[in-house]
Amino acid sequence: MKMAILGAGNIARKMANTITQMEDIEAYAVASRDLEKAQAFAKKWGISKAYGSYEEMLEDEDVELVYVCTPHSFHYQHMMMCLEHRKHVLCEKPFTVNADEARKVFAFAKEKNLLATEGLWTRYLPMRLVLDQILERRIIGDPKSLTANLCYPIKGVPRMTDPALAGGALLDVGVYPINFAMMVFGNKIEHISSTCTKTETGVDAANSITLTFKNGNMAILHSSMLCNSDRRGMIFGTKGFIEFLNINNCEGINVYDLDYNLIENYKPFKFITGFEHEVEASQKAIAEGKLECKQMPHSETIQVMEIMDGLRKEWGITYPME
User: Fold this and answer.
1) Burial code of 106-145, b = ≥16 C-beta within 10 A, e = fewer?
2) Locate the Gfo/Idh/MocA-like oxidoreductase N-terminal domain: which residues (predicted)?
3) What is the pLDDT of residues 217-258, one digit of tens each?
4) CATH code at 126-272
5) Which residues of 184-195 are buried (b: 16+ CB within 10 A; e: fewer)?
6) Contact at 8 Å (CB) between 247 and 175?
7) Domain extent listing, the chain
């Protein structure tokens, strides 16, 4: 499959490093608004074609799947452009700025009979399946509560505090704890409470979120762009608890009994960068004629966006494009 990368920033480099090492994927094209930048990117990663405009690349009939990795605020525009040119789309998280945009993308993809999926890589990583299997085996009994956090000192990155680029901790890092909670407890959320602190530009710098599920389970989540955190996810059950090391890129899973004895331990599988799993899932879905990946269903992407829309409304945060 010939794959193209729309955007040539930091995250694009990780995807290029990934697909240039995959057997069934050809790193075919890259596009940037700066032709010299695209050409330098293509040369570095051995990509066949470089384009100085997104439209020009999308007019290339050989492009089959496009990875969109521009800033959040452009995801909707660029995905719609890809779909208009009849290209399947894998888009970096967050999928869009809000749920309304996500619904429109999925509706247009369905109309065009094309795949559109969110590349939230933690949904695709093999360690997610390991966690599922541990929970299914009921080693810790009935899971009742969890905590998860993800914090990085990235306030100095200009886009993080720019409302015009949909900045803030929530869309960039808070999306991971929310997805972690839903991967463990499902999507039947009854109540959400939260608080945040803001930057001088009015976006959230740090936040605390509590999700209460209909069965009484509770998830306490935290994200911030002001500091580092241990990035752990802890799942507490009636017979023990699970320690998930780094919810953003699993470094291991430890299972403990009620006496705090370590009873099971799992290490990550070897992989290229981890991004190959979302590419493989997209490739498989396309081959099967499906419009979504089972690892990241459209309904889950929309629900996460709805949760974040509600949180921002509670915090009084809106973006100029809204």
Assistant:
1) beebeebebbbbbbbbbbbbebbebbeebbeeebbeebbb
2) 2-117
3) 999 999 999 999 999 999 999 999 999 999 999 999 999 999
4) 3.30.360.10
5) bbeeebeeeebe
6) no
7) 2-121+275-292, 126-272
